[in-house]
Each structure stands twice: as C-alpha cells, then as structure tokens.
Design a protein that fits this description.
single chain, Lipocalin, 18 strands, 7-stranded mixed sheet, 2 domains, 9-stranded antiparallel sheet, Rossmann fold
Length: 280
C-alpha cells in the first residue's frame, strides 16, 4: 500500500508512518541529510510482536504518556493505552489519523488516546515520558537535541531500526528481523559538586557526554579518579578508591542541582557551578 499526503509541499519535512519503508531503511547508511522528501512512502506497519517488545523494553505502564512519531494506524499508541498509559500519535496522513481513531474506539481506549496531524519537528516533547520512533537516522539526529533538552531526565526513547550515532543506546536487541534501541534521557550530571557526609566532604568534578560520565574527586590536596561510573536517566553510580581500604561507593539520584542517596546511606551533594551541557 502506498500512502501520499495530499497537502505535502515538495520542500516540507515529511513525517514517516510507523513501520516506515524498507526502501528508506536501505538508505540509512547514506551520509548527510536527505534534502528532498520522497513523493510516496510505502506504509509497512510495525509487527505486533515488535510493538509489544518496544513497550516492554521502555517499561510502559500507568502514568506514562507515550508519543509515537509517525503513528500510522495507531497500533503503538493503542497498545500503550491497553497497558494503562496515555497515548498520543503524530501522523501527517489524515486518512491514517481517521483510521487510528476508529481503531482506538474498537479497542475501547479512545479516552486514553489522541491523534494529531502535525510535523514531528514541531511536536512538543516536554510532557512525554516515552517516545517511540521509526524514522530515518537523520530524523533521529534532528530530534536528538530536543530530546536531550525538552524531555525530562529518566524519560525513555525507543527506536525501531535506526540509531542516533554518537549517542549509544542504553539497551539494544534483535527482535526477529527488527532491531530495537532504547535510551534513557540522561540528567545533567556534568559540572562541579560538593559532597557532604557528616563532617566529611569532598569536591567532585564530573564530565559528561550523553550518558557517559567520568570525573575526579578532590579530598583537600588528594586527587582521585572515580571508577565504574554509570548514569542511567537520573540514577548515578560511581566508586572512589582511597588508600588501602574498601572503595567508597555512591549511588544517588540527580534532581536539578542536588544528588540524594539511594538506599540507607547518609550524604548529600550540591552543584556548586554551572551545569555542563550533556553533549556538544
């Protein structure tokens, strides 16, 4: 089946339907942006098993707002609603929007779903907790800065087939012939922090590139590199080996300019300078 939006201007950015073309997939290895959109885009729905696995990997449940970019017949949005989440679909083709609305009514989840005819590059992301994608890598890269700045830390992004180049996925897997990627939007961890635990304290300088972090801890004149540093959304973990004793382990949650411990430890960290950008 070939779908062609009647109102698509030749120079406008086209939003691909969920389950984008095999033809487009073959172009994913091309370098540079695709300047001219295709006049026709074969509509190939995402297999139901892949839809279910995407939502499972993103741990979708009640309380989530799932946004599907290029929602096609609405199957991802509807599947999310069946899990108790709210679902929003963005689609350029008005006929597919009408079909999605009918499908949502048949599934008795229309009260949890909405479908918009909209350009995905203009779609708001601030209230979205899970973003699902099946668009070319270059479209992912155009969306990437907005994902990192507009979506809340800890939100999840799931992509079918296409990655985000330097931003490595937190999880990826093969699902039959499909390849699935998951990212957790990272908190802004980079910068200088003051850690305090009772009368003891130290300064930590963190450097961040997407979810990858490294850093140096300063105990007075003593300078130590942190190790086993991990950042997953708002959760940060690292160790400091000081002397011959057991390494100091820190597991915390970042909230704006504060890090609070997860578990029974008693310490607190406060950002003392400007936050570093997540990626350049």
């Amino acid at each position: 089946m070939i779908t062609k939006p009647a109102d698509c201007h030749p120079k406008s950015h086209r939003l691909l339907s969920s389950g984008a073309a095999v033809l487009l997939a073959s172009l994913s290895t091309m370098s540079g942006f695709i300047e001219e959109p295709f006049e026709t885009i074969p509509y190939i729905p995402t297999p139901s098993s892949a839809v279910d696995r995407m939502l499972e990997l993103a741990e979708v449940g009640p309380g989530d707002l799932v946004l599907d970019m290029g929602s096609g017949d609405g199957r991802i949005v509807i599947a999310a609603a069946k899990l108790g989440a709210r679902g929003r679909g963005v689609e350029i083709n008005p006929e597919l929007i009408e079909r999605s609305q009918r499908n949502a009514m048949r599934a008795k989840v229309s009260h949890l779903t909405e479908f918009r005819q909209e350009d995905m590059f203009d779609t708001p992301l601030t209230d979205v907790s899970v973003l699902t994608l099946y668009v070319l890598t270059q479209s992912n890269l155009r969306l990437r800065p907005r994902i990192l700045t507009e979506m809340r830390p800890g939100s999840r992004v799931v992509s079918h087939q296409f990655g985000m180049q330097e931003w490595d996925a937190d999880k990826s897997e093969r699902h039959g012939v499909n390849r699935l990627f998951v990212w957790y939007v990272p908190a802004r961890a980079g910068g200088r922090w003051r850690f305090e635990s009772g009368d003891d304290h130290f300064t930590l300088e963190l450097y961040q590139e997407f979810q990858q972090i490294r850093g140096t801890a300063y105990f007075g004149n003593e300078r130590l590199q942190i190790r086993d540093a991990r950042l997953k959304g708002t959760k940060i973990d690292f160790e400091i080996e000081r002397g011959n004793g057991e390494p100091l382990r820190f597991s915390g949650t970042i909230s704006e300019n504060t890090i609070l411990p997860r578990g029974g430890d008693r310490w607190r960290a406060t950002r003392t300078g400007a936050a570093q950008v997540i990626a350049r």
